[in-house]
Design brief:
The chain is α/β, with parallel strands linked by helices and about 325 residues long. It contains twelve helices and 14 strands. Strands 3, 4, 5, 6, 9, 10, 11, 12, 13 and 14 form a ten-stranded mixed beta sheet that branches. Strands 1-2 form a two-stranded antiparallel ribbon. Strands 7-8 form a two-stranded parallel ribbon. The longest helix has 14 residues. It is globular, with a radius of gyration of 19 Å. The chain starts with a strand and ends with a strand.
């Protein structure tokens, strides 16, 4: 029997300086829907909300928004409050969550007077279920790590972090493709699928991992025929330490002696504070600048996993990436 818990999203929206706070400002979290961090500054979703606000402040006015892999629906609620689009698409590969996400979105629009968007739920992978050449804004936080054991994807929150190796390896450009090495093929494949749905001035807002070399991310965009810019970044606690073992295993099996970019949380916090930067929190430095500051705190995925077994938090970088047609 599916049960739910309620989560107050108002502090998250206030922290993101959203002008109109959702009412009632509560979402219902059912099975396989991730609970946000209690501290908004340590939450991926805030990064997405702030990046959407930046797009709005730049004059961007999408009429059709798609929240890909909507999960709990908060980013779609944010898009409705920030842009007031005519249509909001909710997609997820876990079709079980979609009716609940739609309820979360619709229930939290009452503060927006005389505004009732069309909310459409469609199940499927990446941007595939969306209509062609219709979407103005795509918002997506893709699972960054490919695994071969697909049985791990059938329960819990695994889909927030893990995805099928077998499905995405077909997109590799030869056996030495660095997109395959660093598990960036899922993001590249999404860019290709989203490109088919884009208009000339559409934008893809990707909330993506900084655990890998940034030049690998830029190559994914270049190969897909897109331009990329960083809107905002965050240095935050690893939200699902339960999956650090999969990172450690992938690191051992595929990275050929290289390591993912994880950080000792306390050391990272001290280094950022010494640099005059709040952590956790939203920042505007480049990936290289952040990694230079944090270098003394860098640890491998295996070390991150070992620290998590001791109950110690680890940190990583996340980016809000703006993708547009080249």
């Amino acid at each position: 029997m599916d049960t739910s818990i309620n989560f107050d999203i108002k502090p998250l929206f206030k922290s993101s300086d959203i002008e109109i706070i959702p009412q009632p400002g509560v979402i219902h979290l059912h099975e396989r829907m991730e609970k946000p961090e209690e501290n908004p500054d340590n939450e991926w979703i805030k990064l997405g909300l702030v990046a959407m606000k930046d797009l709005h402040d730049s004059g961007f006015r999408p009429k059709t928004v798609a929240d890909i892999g909507t999960g709990n629906g908060i980013l779609a609620i944010g898009a409705a409050h920030i842009f007031k689009p005519e249509t909001v698409y909710l997609t997820d590969i876990v079709d079980h969550v979609l009716p609940y996400c739609a309820i979360n979105v619709k229930e939290n629009l009452e503060a927006l007077t005389k505004y009732t968007p069309q909310v459409i739920s469609v199940a499927g992978r990446d941007a595939d279920p969306l209509p062609d050449s219709l979407v103005d804004l795509f918002v997506f936080s893709p699972p960054p790590l490919m695994i071969t054991d697909k049985s791990k994807l059938e329960s819990g929150l695994a889909r927030t972090t893990l995805t099928e190796y077998d499905h995405y390896i077909q997109y590799a450009n030869g056996k030495d493709d660095k997109l395959a090495k660093w598990s960036v093929l899922p993001w590249y494949a999404f860019l290709l699928s989203a490109k088919k749905k884009m208009k000339e001035h559409s934008v893809i807002l990707g909330i993506y991992s900084g655990r890998i070399p940034f030049n690998t991310i830029t190559e994914a965009y270049s190969r897909a025929g897109m331009k990329i810019a960083i809107s905002r970044s965050i240095v935050k606690k690893q939200q699902d330490p339960i999956y650090l073992k999969e990172y450690a295993d992938y690191e051992s099996n595929y990275l050929n002696g290289d390591t993912f970019y994880f950080y000792n949380f306390e050391k990272a916090q001290l280094l950022m504070t010494q640099a005059g930067i709040k952590m956790p929190g939203i920042i505007t430095l480049s990936d290289q600048e952040i990694k230079e500051i944090l270098f003394p705190a860098k640890i491998s995925a295996l070390e991150a996993y070992q620290q998590s077994l001791q109950g110690l938090p680890v940190a990583h970088i996340g980016h809000a990436l703006i993708g547009t047609l080249a």
